[in-house]
């Protein structure tokens, strides 16, 4: 019998304290020690901030570590727990999934104590960290293959009250897009599990394959806005500037708004994220590499909509996701 997951320090310690979340060893790897920062200023909101759920999305770990620099000073009340890299195995490998078991941490919640490495991480987070929070910010980004505006994402939640609270929290980031995503594959998501436990769960997203200073500043500003709205820090929430604009849109994307690649090839985007398109407008061109003809396949908008995510890198296989469209949220 291996040891149980545990923290190496007491989260109730006042002020800033640091230690590790220990994920027990299993047959596939040794025990893992995840750095944890606990900022305890007493009564108030209880927030858990996680990065590195997907290992090739580095904005989250970077912004989480930037928060550790200024939040201990700025925080006026409540409790914040920050885990910059909840899947260190994937972050080290710069891969979406955990290399040793091939699993996506964001599909195995609440995890299993006797499972593989990814499942043991989810189990430790579910048992020891999630119960300590009422609100969770899970900091993702779109990874190296998709362009995506700075955004916060949530999924439709059956509990109307939790849905309304979650949407209010999401909009408090004041990022260019708040997206309610009717996603086809939500089983085992950290989001879904946290929602089932009555938590407000916000997933921050950011596009692009490279980490840049401007993008990080917008991302961090969004998190700071949310911290202000929660009442954890003082200050005034402001829309960050994105493409010379300070604005925000709340959109929804349905399963039917996803366009898939008709064949293998190189996708050439002809539109950018947040562009409005009319039915029949050209969104992109797919160049099949095997073809001797110069005929490329034109990908057009099936309906009047807004481009919310578009393939920006990598050769695509047939039936892979290339474009997500969206429309203003109609509650
Ligand atoms: Zn992600």
Automatic annotation (TrEMBL):
Q: Is tRNA-binding one of the keywords UniProt gives this record?
A: no
Q: Which residues form the Succinylglutamate desuccinylase/Aspartoacylase catalytic domain?
A: 44-227
- Required cofactor(s): Zn(2+)
Organism superkingdom: Bacteria
Which UniProt keywords are given for this protein, alphabetically ordered?
Hydrolase, Metal-binding, Zinc
Q: Which Pfam families match?
A: AstE_AspA_cat
Q: Which GO terms describe its molecular function?
A: hydrolase activity, acting on carbon-nitrogen (but not peptide) bonds, in linear amides; hydrolase activity, acting on ester bonds; metal ion binding
This one is known as Succinylglutamate desuccinylase/Aspartoacylase catalytic domain-containing protein
